[in-house]
Design goal:
Helix content: 10-25%
CATH architecture of the largest domain: 3-Layer(aba) Sandwich
Radius of gyration: 25 Å
Number of helices: 12
CATH topology of the largest domain: Rossmann fold
CATH class of the largest domain: Alpha Beta
Strand order of the largest sheet: 11-12-10-13-14-7-18
Number of domains: 3
Largest sheet: 7 strands, mixed
Number of strands: 30
CATH superfamily of the largest domain: P-loop containing nucleotide triphosphate hydrolases
């Protein structure tokens, strides 16, 4: 039998307190890879009350039914699709209702089910606690739920290797969305198809796949059927076998195509809003966003498809051709740190380094990759090419050339981190003339090649960006961007 992870146990304790305090409708916010299905079945086993678990997709229901049977609670829990519940119009004698992917709770079928059971405890599960149109799910804002419990954060799951953070590439130039209508809170598919379904743009998508993710099992999110077919034809023209899967296909046809993709019989699968919630393929190595979206829910659900770990899997890649990362932030950004409704304006969420082209959190004072100080007059750097550029991650190759001013005397002491199997982080460079990189308060020298850190994070230190770590219970600080003549290590 599976054992609860520490954050799952904490969640159960917090949920128990909320139920005892009379909170009736609760969301468990769990990112991809948090084990939300196992978590909720364990909750139902502990509560030991007649329950109903529902969702809108067969994949979600199959996962729930499997966990219910593994946990030996099939006599307590009914697993039914919301469509079946709506057709039967029955009253279920249940005390607990579980709604998987509960950001869809405001649909009439879910609201009717909850209204028929006014005394039942409602537990919602989702990675994205917001409606698809951007509106709140909370009762205070006209929604259904009273409380959100955060099960874990994306960064927390990545720290313990429960998920893999991706390298994210996006267009350096702004995506032209002027004149695109908004329907039901998102861009009009017809207008997007008219604007982006062109030979040049489809060719750019294939070009960057070949450059940055060639040979990887890749999932493409297209605008519509016509756009998907155009992309498939362009991939085939370049000698890359690709297939499309649509909701209009029969179940047998969909299962056959997706099964062949999982078996690696072809590398590129193109879909239209189909392979999102509940679609689980840990071997997926790349997600290509070929469709802009205003919905952060859709964005997070899409990029999460490639973040599950698998044996031998390389660090996943996201190719963002819709400018989504500039609007919605990086995949690991905490949900509450990104404004709910940006409307295309407001302060930017990420910025791009003029030296190495890494696009990163806007709050950073120095570049996470090359150490460039953002206090330098960035206008002195002139871009010489337009391309997809690295947003976040550990890629080593340079993807865009820049011209550096002659009077720049800064020295970039690059800090490379490597995760270890025991959950720690190892500093694997740099080495400067065999000088010690760290020095503890008691004078002990710690060399970079021997330093292993249990914790790491960033902290501002004057005009520099320092990294504070713990090494054998001794806190140390290393400056990694200083003037050449001042390069040195200091103690905290």
């Amino acid at each position: 039998m599976k054992e609860l992870r520490y954050y799952q146990a904490n969640c159960i304790n917090e949920l128990g307190k909320e139920i005892k305090n009379g909170t009736q409708r609760i969301i468990l916010q769990a990112p991809v890879g948090a084990g939300k299905t196992f978590l909720v079945t364990e909750i139902l086993r502990l509560l030991a009350a007649p329950s109903l678990a529902t969702a809108h997709r067969k994949e979600l229901l199959d996962q729930m039914q499997a966990e219910v049977e593994n946990n030996n609670i099939a006599h307590l829990v009914q697993v039914k699709s919301i469509q079946m519940i709506a057709r039967q119009d029955d009253h279920y004698a249940v005390q607990i209702i579980v709604v998987d992917e509960c950001h869809r709770t405001e649909a009439e079928s879910y609201k009717e089910l909850i209204q028929k059971h006014p005394n039942a405890i409602v537990i919602g599960l989702t990675a994205t606690p917001q409606r698809l149109d951007g509106k709140s799910l909370m009762k205070a804002d006209g929604g259904t739920y009273d409380k959100i419990i955060k099960v874990a954060t994306v960064k927390e799951l990545a720290r313990y290797n429960f998920i893999m953070l991706p390298d994210v590439y996006s267009s350096a130039a702004a995506i032209d969305l002027k004149g695109i209508k908004t329907i039901a809170g998102d861009y009009s598919k017809k207008d997007l198809d008219d604007r982006f379904n062109t030979p040049k743009l489809c060719g750019d998508i294939v070009k960057h796949y070949k450059k940055l993710a060639k040979g990887r099992q890749s999932l493409v999110f297209a605008i519509g059927v016509s756009h998907a077919n155009s992309l498939r034809e362009r991939f085939e023209q370049e000698g890359i076998h690709a297939k499309c899967v649509f909701g209009t296909h029969t179940k047998e046809a969909r299962d056959e195509i997706i099964g062949d993709f999982r078996n690696k019989e072809f590398p590129v699968l193109i879909n239209v809003d189909l392979c999102t919630e509940g679609w689980d393929y840990p071997g997926l190595e790349c997600v290509i966003l070929a469709c802009p979206t205003k919905s952060r829910v859709k964005y997070i659900q899409a990029v999460g498809r490639c973040m599950r770990p698998a044996p031998g899997k390389q660090r996943p890649v996201i190719l963002d051709h819709g400018g989504c990362v500039y609007r919605h932030g990086l995949p690991e950004d905490d949900w509450d740190d990104v404004p709910r409704e940006r409307g295309g304006g407001g302060e930017p969420l990420v910025k791009r380094c003029p030296v190495c082209e890494l696009v990163q959190a806007v709050a950073r004072r120095t570049c996470a990759k090359c150490g460039h100080s953002f206090f330098v007059n960035d206008k002195e750097y002139k871009e010489v090419d337009e391309d997809l550029v690295l947003i976040q991650g550990g890629a080593k190759k340079k993807v865009k050339a820049v011209r550096k001013p002659k009077n720049d005397t800064s020295y970039a002491l690059r800090v490379n981190m490597r995760p270890r199997a025991d959950g720690c982080v190892e500093w694997v460079g740099p080495f400067i003339q065999k000088r010690p990189i760290l020095k503890t308060p008691d004078g002990k020298q710690v060399y970079a090649r021997n330093a292993v850190f249990a914790e790491c994070g960033t902290m501002p230190l004057g005009p520099f960006d320092a990294i504070r770590m713990t090494c054998q219970n001794v806190k140390c600080v290393a400056i990694h961007h200083m003037e050449k003549r001042d390069l040195r290590a200091i103690a905290s």
